[in-house]
Amino acid sequence: MKLIDKLEAVENSIVELQNKIENSQDVAELKGFTHELNALQAQKQALSEVEAVTENSAKTEDYLSTDKAVEDFKNSLVVDRKSGKADYQGWGKKLAENGLTVEDPAKVLPRKLVQEIQTALIDSNEILKLAKITHNNGVIVMRDLTSDDVARVHQEGETKVIQNSKIKSSLVEPRQIYVRHGFGALSAKLLEDFDDIFQELVDESVQKITNKVVDLMLFEGTATPNATGSGATENGFISIKNESDTGKVIHVDGKTDLPGAIEMAIDELTQPGKKYLVVTKKQKHAIVKALRVRQPNVNYSSSNDAIAAEFGLDGLILYRGTAKIKPTIITEGSYVIDMGPFDRVEQFRIENNTEDLLIETIATGRTLRYGGIVVIDIADE
Question: Which residues, 6 or more positions from 43, have their beta carbon under 8 angstroms from its beta carbon?
Answer without folding.
Answer: 10
